[in-house]
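Thread: assembly with ligand

MN 10:42: here's the input set. Chains plus the small molecule as SMILES. Want everything predicted jointly, not piecewise.
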Amino acid sequence: MPEPMRRTGGCLCGAVRFSGAAAPGITACHCTQCQRWTGGGPLFSVGVRDLELTGEAHVRAYRHSTWGERSACDTCGTTLFWRMQGRPIGFVAVGLLDDQSGLTVTEEIFVDDRPGWMTPWPGATQSTEAEEMAKLHAFLEGEAT
Ligand SMILES: [Zn+2]
Ligand SMILES: [Zn+2]
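BT 11:07: finished. Tokens for the full assembly:
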């Protein structure tokens, strides 16, 4: 399993830049929120630890649920990242990376929302909304105890 690698990236206008330790696997989320948010889903993202932002004043976070938030650049509107509220890990839209080499799509989630015109990604694991929500609730309950 390849290790996370330090990667950099930024939004379309350059107001927001970031760096962090990015996982090598791309997650494709087909949920209807990601479809609308990206304007043509899925959201292809990589988990980035130690996400360091410059131009954070231009990051506008939209809280779409009690646990998640979606951030965009307030100047150019670029889809930046999804994260659990208050967490240091962000799932950064892969298209923002300066260098996308060495990445592969490893998982598809919320596959029951995948539009009929899109086929499953070869080699990627598949999980449904029910499976993802069960994982989320187990995670949140584990933290609460
Ligand atoms: Zn921007
Ligand atoms: Zn999603």
